Amino acid sequence: MTAFHHRIRRICACIIGMVFLLAGMFKLLDPVGAGLVVEEYYKFFHLWFLIPTAKAVAVGLALLEALTGAMLISGIWRKLAAVLASAMIVVFTVLTLILAVVNPPMDCGCFGEVIHLSNLGTFLKNLILLGLALIAFLPFGNFGKNKTRKYVSFALSAAGIFALTGYSLARLPLVDYTDFSPGAELLASKDNSIDGGDEYESTFVYEKNGQEGVFTLDHLPDSTWTYVRTETIRKKGLRNDNVPILSFTDSTGTYCDELATEDNVLVLSVYRPLKLKGDSWTKLADVMDAAANAGFKPLLLAAATPEGMDTLSVIVPDVRARLSSRLYYGDFTTLISLNRSNGGATWFNEGQLITKYPLGKLPAADELLEMSGRDANEVMLDDSSRGRISFDALLLYVFAILLLL
């Protein structure tokens, strides 16, 4: 085998590795969303009894995918990496062929919430990977020798991958790619209807050296710029079909969506009420009381019926009484999209989503008081920018370690 052939095989293996690494890390960014995708696969193949394992399987597969990608890029354990990558590519190709033929209304979830592909597009992507695998791994053997330092680069990159996994499981995604992302405005807070009309977009004015610049949430300046103000501009004749609708009702079935569009609203969302223990309900009641004292309007949205909530014996009577006047009812899909944490909190200001908190890190009373006195848009920009920068830095770190070390 010539040196040129070896080089071509390594290039193809690295391309496969980059796809695997990105796909795995994008899914590890949002384990709850990845679990929902696995649930859809279970339902499609009528494997209902496996649904409780969906999140664990999703995280395990995403870790395997990311680590296999790191092995392919670094060039260590080449035979093992070739076997793992080939097996996953073949299985994914068969699965996506079935999806391309049947074309059910579901997302393959290959890249989590970051990139969405059609069923046919996903199948074609896997066909390309299959072709690259044939070049990279056949004939099986003669993969060449890796450099000893590559074990170090793999270990360092694997540490970053596991750190992302641990953070995502304990907290919320560093970057939110759902419709309910920071900066999103609820439909009821806009001056247009879902059927069309004018639309409005928030832009952010920053200043540097006496000059002002206008930026959007997706394209913010670096830290040398100073935030000045937020402006809303009209985009005439445009329509956005992804305007988030936070719909919920009271115990009588009356829709109360407009309550979430007032000045400062703290929405606590529970999409699996049966999973919450009694002390968690007490914690939610305490946060709601503190939010009310800080000037927020607290709302508790549960994916349940009034009758279902009445049967939850883990909620003690005094806590139930504190929650009842602020309790409303939404659907599972909306609430799990709103906040990936079961019992998490979401801050809205005049219908604009500012930031989110997981159940394990709900704001304390003093933090709520501080929040009420801060500029909501500044909080949104700080939090969303910090998450994006952290995830981008992690991706850069992993790829730099694997390619340069």
Which secondary structure elements does this structure contain, and how are they paired or packed?
Layout: H1 3-29, H2 31-44, H3 54-74, H4 78-102, H5 119-137, H6 149-170, E1 199-208, E2 211-215, E3 226-235, E4 264-270, H7 278-293, E5 297-302, H8 306-310, H9 317-324, E6 327-329, H10 332-338, E7 344-349, E8 352-357, H11 365-373, H12 376-404
Parallel strand pairs: 4-5, 5-6
Antiparallel strand pairs: 1-2, 1-3, 4-7, 7-8
Helix pairs in contact: 1-3, 1-5, 2-3, 3-4, 3-6, 4-5, 6-12, 7-9
Describe the overall structure:
The protein has 405 residues and is α/β, with parallel strands linked by helices. The chain has 3 domains: 3-170 and 397-404, no CATH class; 191-241, no CATH class; 257-374, Glutaredoxin (3-Layer(aba) Sandwich), CATH 3.40.30.10. Helix content is 50%, strand content 13%. The protein is built from 12 helices and 8 strands. A 5-stranded mixed sheet has the order 6-5-4-7-8, with helices on both faces. The longest helix has 29 residues, at 376-404. The radius of gyration is 24 Å and the shape is globular. The protein starts with a helix and ends with a helix.
Shape: globular
- Compute the number of structural domains: 3
**How many strands, what sense, and barrel or not for the largest sheet?**
5 strands, mixed
The main sheet orders its strands as 6-5-4-7-8
Task: Compute the number of helices.
Answer: 12
Helix content bin: 40-55%
CA distance, first residue to last residue: 27 Å
Order of helices and strands: HHHHHHEEEEHEHHEHEEHH
Instruction: Tell me the β content.
Output: 5-15%
Cα radius of gyration in angstroms: 24 Å
Q: What class do helices, strands and sheet pairing give?
A: alpha/beta
